[in-house]
Specification:
- By secondary structure, this protein is α+β, with helices and mostly antiparallel strands.
- The chain is 27% helix and 27% strand.
- The strands form five sheets. A five-stranded antiparallel beta sheet has the order 15-14-13-16-17. It has a four-stranded parallel beta sheet with strand order 2-1-5-6, covered by helices on one side.
- Strand 5, helix 2 and strand 6 form a beta-alpha-beta unit.
- Helix 1 crosses helix 8.
Length: 343
């Protein structure tokens, strides 16, 4: 085995994706160390020691085995889906839990940036992931880079929505501006997702609560099929999602109907591929899951990019080797996107 290992920053509910990448990492003779951030403060600990010799010396402690990690042992970092424990199983006040969570967030964010300062390669930079996650900013950048984008109104103004509905001849969908997650307060493990929905004329009479929160309204772009283009370093893996074959998935393919919505690995035009690489590169990412619409008029319309989007179902349904590509990028067998001359 190689002396260095791949560090994966994630959480305990992110099992399957890591396992699939791990098998490729180990096949190439490297080790993968999974660091679940929701275990810190519960059964893991972290120490950063600063002195004249080590600045800093990094120690990660786990109950099952003592670990001592320094930057010399780390090949790269795969920054996946970290989260902090809610500490609900401890007899603590709400104020104490919030304070402890904030302390862990500050310590871990410092830890990530120390690794970056030491020159450790990240897929992707945590700060860039946060910046790239803002969908209004994505649309601005996509338009600047020459993508077609849907007509869009992000607003909490009911009158503007009615005007937008008329402007688009009533062809409007609504979706969240953010992640669209709703957590059950009484059961934090229960999470609901707000999907994309059509707006009908009768809905325009029920907009009084819109002033409480902005919503993304977009023209309902005609679809031949949809595409998930996954950028890994300098590679693009494209899969068509034939969402229009099912009434269930017609508006939002995340209302999965696998039996009636074929997934197929496809080759997209070189110009479209170059745009996928360019927007990911401009966002400072090494990985990006891009959602596109292929229209009946053969146009490619940009919807959004997820800096840590899931990919395993694409491997299962369309056979695209994304896990191996991520492993090879982390090991250094594939070149980083940020080292590619601007596309």
């Amino acid at each position: 085995m190689k002396d260095k290992f791949i560090l994966v920053i994630s959480s305990t509910d992110d099992e399957q994706h890591i396992v699939h990448v791990q098998k490729h990492v180990e096949r190439y003779g490297y080790r993968l160390l999974r660091v679940d951030t929701d275990r810190f403060g519960v059964d893991w600990g972290l120490t950063l020691l600063f002195d004249a010799v080590h600045c800093p010396h990094i120690l990660i402690h786990a109950k099952e085995n003592d670990l001592e990690i320094s930057e010399e042992n780390i090949q790269s970092v795969w920054f996946r889906k970290p989260r902090i424990s809610d500490f609900m199983h401890y007899n603590l006040s709400r104020e104490s839990r919030l304070f402890i969570q904030d302390e862990w967030i500050a310590t871990l964010n410092g830890f990530y940036r120390i690794l970056q300062e030491k020159g450790i390669f990240f897929v992707s930079d945590p700060d860039r992931i946060i910046r790239a996650s803002y969908k209004p900013f994505q649309l601005l950048l996509a338009a600047r880079l020459g993508w077609q984008i849907p007509q869009t109104a992000i607003t909490s103004n009911p009158d503007l929505v009615r005007s937008f509905w008329s402007k688009t001849s009533g062809k409007v969908i609504a979706k969240p501006v953010g992640r669209g997650w709703v957590t059950n307060e009484s059961n934090p493990d229960e999470v609901f997702f707000v999907m994309t929905n059509e707006i009908h004329e009768t809905d325009l009479e029920c907009l009084s609560d819109l002033t409480l929160s902005p919503v993304t309204f977009q023209e309902n772009v005609p679809k031949d099929y949809e595409i998930r283009a996954t950028v890994v370093g300098q590679q693009v893996f494209s899969v068509s999602i034939d969402s229009q074959r099912s009434e269930h998935s017609r508006i939002d393919w995340r209302r999965y109907d696998f039996a009636n919505t074929p997934y197929k690995a496809i080759t997209i035009p070189e110009l479209v591929k170059a745009k996928c690489l360019r927007i990911t590169q401009q966002l400072g990412l090494e990985y990006g899951a891009i959602d596109l619409i292929k229209t009946p008029a053969d146009d490619y319309v940009f919807l959004e990019i997820n800096p840590v989007g899931q990919f395993l179902w694409l491997e299962h349904l369309a056979g695209v080797p994304i896990s191996e590509a991520i492993a090879r990028l982390l090991i250094g067998l594939e070149p980083p996107l940020q080292k590619l001359k601007e596309v």
